[in-house]
Design a protein that fits this description.
This protein has an 8-stranded mixed β-sheet with strand order 1-2-4-3-5-8-6-7, sandwiched between helices. A 4-stranded antiparallel β-sheet has the order 14-17-13-18, with helices on one face. Strands 9-12 form a two-stranded antiparallel sheet. The protein is of the alpha+beta class. Helix 16 packs across helix 19. The N terminus is likely disordered. Helices cover about 30% and strands about 20% of the residues. The protein is built from 20 helices and 18 strands.
Length: about 625
């Protein structure tokens, strides 16, 4: 069923099934009189409602437990943590031979696919698709071949607390189901901005489960925001310069075209890229740039060296079209992973090996990209949009885009070039002073290997001097980072961090993070200040930018006179500044601070001196 042809399902949303008569907030179609009757005892709750509704947490788990009871040798439901509100988080494992131990599965060279649903709990299409796919793998057996070699693991409701904050008013842009969950978790954090900083209990539980399972392929299911167009299934797999080269090649040459063809051959229309318009009020300007820093699930997969796929069903298609479209791309992926199992396992092993050699780069001077932005190149993209009109709006005062449902198939420029905006030569190891406990706790949550120093140590190390930071005023994800909220490519507020060599002190119990480990990229993304989701940018090091001691004016008066007497050049510089800078000349404080800032008393504040050392070797460091 192609989109645009399936409007009757919208009408069902009027509530015929359950007799609801409350108007949808924005869908104008009249309710249909056609009743919905589904007899099949294994119909999923969404199918039973003819896709008018999605089951709540209890009904979802009840269905899954029925499937588990009917196919105990192939299904296992496993808790992996708790949400902030205390709900159990589960994965569902489908394994044809009843082996549910991840180590045994990997030893048998069977690829593991992990599918995450409902991270934005108003976007739960993937959950209902996974219920149907699971049923078809182990109950009806129409898809049992998909478990021939691969193991299918899915999280039905990752943001379970958001999932239960149900309302018909949660997603104004989205066409059904009748009620849906909320984007934020129990503390209103967006879990899909939390992968690197790991503030939420859900993220910490995910990281532990992820490392236990070490999936070979990761999927995160969503529903779009943004423009209107013909596609119902859109998806993106990262292939940028920080994706291991072999993986990027397989993603571009095999996985992406295979899934596009599969989805199109199964009654849907796929876009092999997530559609972001370069300009919101003129689709003709083309498609914008997609890059995922590690705050996002799929961006985090880059650091783990695993291919990740963002699936986004189009919000304006009806729920039946979206759930069945999500089903098809997952079925297509499972088919591909079974077919390319050996290749995929080898690519992941190569990525792990590559990550382990990161700490040897001080010798070879290899640069590792930390942050990317659009590089200015575009590639023609055959866009299947809808014709639209633009007119000046008396409401907004800006151009008003109105979409028709008439196809507009046109070649548009798509931004595809990458520019490296921050890079570094990886050190052999980082040394984090013991007192930065929250910074260390995040690395521990990521299961980065660390050792502790056995005695205090001081010495000259490579580190950064940072200045010019501007912190965002309104909160973003409960913090006030040095970047501008969602505009992750806005580097203007970051200021600069310059590599320096400085004497630093590290108490006993300081943390050594060697980069000869599989998670070397996770450590670099967290500890290199210029990386887009670094601890410094998220505010974990804010206190290093605070001046703690000040000079009293009558003390600085004396200091200024002494300094000018000793240093005629300094005196001349001061006089020039007074003559040329009226704001400076008019500020008694600034005139006195001029001298304090140039004195050893100010330097003792160490404002902006990054406390983490970059070591080129561990020689002399007291560590086992
Ligand atoms: Zn989403």
């Amino acid at each position: 069923m192609r989109m645009g042809l399936s409007l009757p399902a919208v009408m069902i949303l009027g509530g015929v099934v359950y007799g609801q008569t409350v108007a949808q907030p924005r869908l104008m179609e009249a309710p249909t009189a056609a009743p919905c009757v589904v007899q099949d005892e294994w119909a999923t709750p969404a199918e039973k409602s003819c896709y008018a509704t999605t089951p709540d947490y209890a009904a979802t788990m009840a269905y899954l437990k029925r499937v588990e009871a009917a196919a105990p040798g192939e299904i296992k439901i496993e808790p992996f943590g708790k949400t902030g509100e205390g709900r159990e988080l589960d994965i569902v494992v489908a394994s044809r031979d009843g082996v549910f131990d991840p180590a045994a599965i990997h030893a048998a060279k069977r690829p593991v696919v992990l599918v995450q649903n409902s991270i934005h709990a108003g976007e739960m299409d993937g959950k209902d698709a996974c219920l149907a796919l699971l049923r078809d793998m182990v109950i009806t057996k129409s898809k049992s071949a998909l478990l021939e070699r691969a193991v299918f693991v899915f999280i039905p409701m990752y943001n379970a607390d958001g999932h239960e904050r149900r309302s018909r008013y949660n997603r104004i842009n989205q066409d059904g189901p009748a009620e849906m969950g909320w984007r934020g978790n129990g503390t209103n954090l967006n879990l899909n901005r939390d992968y690197q900083k790991a503030d939420a209990p859900e993220t910490r539980a995910f990281l532990a489960m992820f490392h236990q399972w070490m999936p070979d392929f990761f999927v995160d299911d969503h529903v779009t925001d943004g423009a209107d167009y013909q596609y119902d299934v859109t998806f993106t797999m990262d292939d940028g310069p920080n994706v291991p080269a072999g993986t990027a090649k397989w993603v571009d040459e095999v996985a992406t075209p295979t899934l596009e063809r599969y989805v199109d051959a199964h009654g849907h229309l796929a876009s092999p890229t997530y559609i972001t318009l370069a300009s919101d009020n003129d689709p003709a300007e083309g498609l914008g740039f997609n890059d995922n820093p590690p705050r996002f699930s799929t961006g985090y997969m880059i650091l783990e060296g695993r291919p990740g796929m963002l699936v986004e069903l189009h919000m304006l298609k009806d729920y039946r079209t979206r759930v069945t479209g999500n089903y098809e791309i997952l079925a297509g992926l499972m088919e591909l992973v079974n077919r390319d199992a050996d290749k995929l396992i080898a690519l992941n092993a190569a990525a792990d090996q590559d990550a382990k050699t990161m700490g040897s780069h001080p010798l070879s001077n290899v640069k590792y990209p930390l942050a990317l932005s659009w590089g200015g190149q575009t590639t023609p993209f055959l866009f299947r949009g809808y014709k639209y009109t633009r007119e000046l709006s008396g409401v907004s005062g800006a151009m008003w885009v109105r979409y028709t449902h008439e196809p507009w198939n046109v070649s548009l420029p798509a931004q595809t070039g990458f520019k490296v905006t921050a890079e570094t030569t990886p050190p052999a190891a980082y040394l984090i002073p013991a007192q930065w406990t929250q910074v260390i706790s995040v690395l521990a949550a990521h299961q980065v290997e660390m050792t502790r120093t056995t005695a205090a140590w001081s010495g000259v190390v490579e580190t950064y001097r940072c200045n010019g930071m501007v912190w965002q005023g309104p909160p973003f994800e409960g913090r006030h980072p040095t970047f501008n909220g969602e505009a992750q490519h806005d580097a203007g507020r970051f200021g600069s961090c310059v590599l320096v060599r400085e004497p630093l002190s590290f108490p006993a119990g300081s943390v050594v993070v060697r980069l000869n480990q599989r998670l070397s990229r996770v450590a670099m993304a967290w500890l290199e200040p210029a990386a887009p989701d670094s601890a410094l940018q998220w505010g974990f090091f804010d206190s290093i930018f605070e001046q703690k001691e000040y000079g009293e004016a009558y003390v600085l008066e004396e200091l200024a006179r002494e300094m000018m007497a000793k240093d005629p050049k300094l005196k001349a510089e001061f006089e020039r500044k007074v003559a040329s800078d009226p704001a400076f000349a008019g500020s008694p404080n600034a005139r006195l601070e001029f001298f304090y800032e140039r004195s050893p008393w100010y330097a003792a504040n160490r404002v902006g001196l990054y406390p983490v050392g970059r070591l080129s070797s561990l020689e002399g460091i007291p560590v086992h």
